[in-house]
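Supplementary Data S3. Sequence and structure tokens for construct A.
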Amino acid sequence: MPRKNRNKKKRPVPSQSRNFFSGAGRGCHIVRINDDDHADTIHEDGNDGKNHRSNILEWDTEIYVEDFEGQEIPDIAMDPENNTLTLCNVTETINVAYITIYEVDCFGKDGRKFESGISVDNEGNSFSCLTFIVLSPPMTFCTLCHVDVDDISRVRIESDVQEWKQHPNPSLKHGAPLEGFPLEGGPFLCTQGVGGHLTHYFSGNLHAIDFRCAIGTSLLAVEDGIVMEAHDGNICSGIGVSNMFKWNSILIRHEDVDNKILFFTEYVHIQSSHVQKGDRVQRGDKIGLSGSVGFSPEPHLHFAVYQSDQADAVTVGFLFKGTDGIDYQPEAGKLYSAVGPTKVKEEHSLPIPLVYI
């Protein structure tokens, strides 16, 4: 469709924090446009730190509402003529989209194939799939890939497209360092830290920390408290969009001696809980076992701190206190345990890649 000649006003674009270890996101493809609309990228395989060209097909930022007057534009469009998939943002907001494509091969620029991962549903059925994670500026089209299939109408796609809910106060912090550590043993690789681009850029996840850990690792209470919620009924896993709305978790309220609520801690993707609502726990108590339930590319623990137990509560930043007395905030690509930061092994010392489109 031809575009009208206009002086285009520069629109806001998402911030570009890294803090995600891409080896923990097999089959997930992070797509973001950079501030100056250059198409230089760093790919999952770009561990040499050099720039590479984008693998998605195209960004189109010359979109105007009046060009589509009277037309209904879907969030996700499949072109039956050339078998391409496009994310359409015809709003004035920054949108975030998680898009899963099942059981077909998908190709990007220059015919490069996108890596696939696995999704398992609550019935135990396993599927090959890949998921695009796109942060889209207002009024843009993002053509993601060519789908290798004869009949595009038979392609199974799941998607969740919403306005990006930014944290109202990213500098918000919990006062005292946490005395305990949420996992027994270690050290554990931090795969996503504050602002991580896989899932830690929403208001409810911004300050969360992910630790890679084997399924069945003991979960420990980081402070004394009372269990507010404990759920372990799901078994789904992997990178399917529908898994984002099914998970297992434990929520604990922590109080001081005057019963003043200080904060809440949440353990997500767990395999099983050893506690139930109303139980009192002490720092270091075993409260459950880690897992890989929900939207989880690999076994890990998602740990977060909140000042409220409301459904729309925002996270707060926090520090751990190592047994060596040094306070620290975990960063993606580094190893941690109750002692504190551990010397990074050679295989974890590579730059943490992030795809910029």
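Construct B, processed identically:
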Amino acid sequence: MAEPGHEPWVLLGEGQIEPDAIVTLPADEARHLAGALRLGAGAVVVLADGAGTVARAELLSLGRGRAQSRPSEARVLEVERAPRPRAPRLELALGALHGQAMDWAVQKAVEQGVERLTPLLTARSQLSRTVAERRAAHWQRVAEQALKQCRRPWALELGAALSLDELVGTADGGALGLVADPGGASPADLAPRVAAAGSTVLVVGPEGGLVGDELALLERHGWQRICLARHVLRAETAAVAGVALLTWLSGLEMT
């Protein structure tokens, strides 16, 4: 059995977790608890809904194998409702990447507290809109697994894939828009603006970066270029480095 404070997290739908309730666990979650973790009735787990509700719960029954003869259930013991994250809000718009690179970026965005991630469709994007839309369910599962691993009460919002035109057309007018670019301003120069912003959106292009017309489009809409490192970064590395840098510059509380 897991040590107190290290109980495995189980993700449920919003509205299912209430004090003293008996909840039915999703089949895939139950298989993981019974198989990989070797838990059984009496073990304590943590239930979360990705909307701020987190609860300790005792397993009452746990089916094994894919053909489960009875539902796997848990009784809610203690419920805690975490408040929504306070400002500043950090969002990431990342050029859609292939395979593990995008999975890694989604995972790290969850771990770093990014509130919304939007896959971007740009001139050099590695995925078309059709493929990006097909991958959305997979990225959502990656984000959910990362939420459980890092014990985050509020889920990452995974937006629909957008073109840059669509992004600037739907962006919050009050947000600070930044674009990762080697020719951009230094973080020190932009620090006062980041610290004062209630919401910041960071655009990171795909491998090869954004083309000139795309940078010009963003600049026409008031987006500021920012240099994240001395050397050229891979797109997924730039995303993680950029979010970490903005978190620090904004003075975001780590609690």
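The domain at 9-81 is CATH 2.40.240.20 (Ribosomal Protein L25; Chain P). The two ends are 28 Å apart (CA to CA).
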